[in-house]
Amino acid sequence: MIFAVRVNPRAGRNCVQRQGNKFKVYLTKPACEGAANKQLIDLLSAHLKIKKYQIRIKSGEKSRDKLVEIDGDE
After folding, report:
1. pTM
2. Domain interval for residue 44
3. Residue 16 · residue 44 · CB < 8 Å
């Protein structure tokens, strides 16, 4: 399954909001050195109740708009 994610780094809180087919994710980590991407995977893993290794950023690693792929083969 692939879905769109809009990320807001350096927010005041960590939060995941679902807006139709998209997710809007607020992260406290900055977007440097992949810290925000790592936190994004951690938050989505907890929110969706799946393992971290099942989540992969398919495109947009250096952008606020990302496509995230979930592997559901477990």
Report:
1. 0.90
2. 2-70
3. yes
At 59, list the tokens.
């495109």
Q: Where are the beta strands (DSSP E) in 1-74?
A: 2-8, 15-19, 22-26, 55-59, 65-70
Neighbour order of strands in the sheet with 2-8? 15-19, 22-26, 2-8, 65-70, 55-59
List the CATH number of the domain containing 53: 3.30.1200.10
Q: Which long-range contacts (CB under 8 A, 24 or more apart) does 14-22 make?
A: 14/39, 14/43, 16/43, 16/44, 16/47
37-72 per-position pLDDT tens digit: 999 999 999 999 999 999 999 999 999 999 999 997
Contact 66, 55 (CB under 8 A): no
The count of domains in the chain is: 1
